[in-house]
Amino acid sequence: MKKLIFAALLLVLPLPSLAAAPRLMVENLDFDFGQVYQGDRVDHVYQFRNAGDATLNIEKVRSSCGCTAALVSEKAIPPGQSGEIKASFDSTRFRGRVNKSIYLYTDDPAHPEARFNLSGEVLERLTANPAQLVLTNLAAGVESNAELTITNHGTETLQLEAIQASVPALSATLERSTLPPGESTRLLVKVLPGAGDTRLSGYLFVRAASPHSLELRIPVQAQVR
């Protein structure tokens, strides 16, 4: 009899409900921007939503490096609503394949963190051949000459500015300063080691006047006899 009464009470009395909780849901964590030229900016919007039954609170957003900025649309996402992360990648100082990450931290008790990935290939607009100048058996106090080829791989005509050197023993001049797409010019380099020098190390900087703030840094190393 007691068992029957207890069973009847279970049918009548409401069972305690589970605590409401937010749930972070992301459909696409990865974005490949394909190919861009150095200096181009990549913008992308990542979507996420709250699939739970309580407000999803955004605690913070951070990126893997200062080259990638991320901004979240809202700090509190109600149940059933969506949010956005606006990401921006500055490719100025990169070349080749790049992989960057953006981390989203929330109060989702089951999966509090999501990592969004941004990847692609950065193509060089301006290159030097060879990329590094290595000279041997130079005489102290005697000027030596060398040359490199500077090529514009981009789609815009570049106006090359005066060459700067990191050490007084280095200097260089361009054969021509206006460089249309796909064309090359010679960079004529002069090296004058000082008396007592046994080794010389420095950089030549080639800058282009363009909206992309292009700078080509060419390492120079020399052994002096």
Task: Provide structural commentary.
The chain contains one helix and 19 strands. With 225 residues, it is mainly β. The longest helix has 11 residues, at 2-12. The protein has two domains: 18-123, Immunoglobulin-like, CATH 2.60.40.10; 126-224, Immunoglobulins (Immunoglobulin-like, Sandwich).
Explain the layout of strands and helices.
Elements: H1 2-12, E1 24-25, E2 30-37, E3 41-50, E4 56-63, E5 68-72, E6 76-77, E7 82-90, E8 96-106, E9 113-123, E10 126-129, E11 133-138, E12 144-152, E13 158-160, E14 164-165, E15 170-174, E16 178-179, E17 184-191, E18 199-209, E19 214-224
Parallel strand pairs: 2-9, 11-19
Antiparallel strand pairs: 1-3, 3-7, 4-6, 4-8, 5-7, 8-9, 10-12, 12-17, 13-16, 13-18, 14-18, 15-17, 18-19
Question: In a nutshell, what does this entry contain?
Answer:
The chain is built from one helix and 19 strands.
**Stretches with pLDDT under 50, minimum 5 residues:** 8-13
CATH class category of the largest domain: Mainly Beta
- Count up the domains: 2
* Tally of DSSP helical segments: 1
Percent helix among the residues? Answer: under 10%
Structural class call reads mainly beta
The whole-number mean of residue pLDDT values reads: 90
CATH superfamily of the largest domain: Immunoglobulins
Number of strands: 19
Distance between the termini: 109 Å
Q: Quote the beta fraction.
A: over 45%
Main pleated-sheet profile: 6 strands, mixed
CATH topology grouping of the largest domain: Immunoglobulin-like
Radius of gyration over C-alpha positions, nearest whole angstrom: 30 Å
Give the overall form. elongated
- N-to-C order of helices and strands: HEEEEEEEEEEEEEEEEEEE
Q: Which architecture name of the largest domain does CATH use?
A: Sandwich
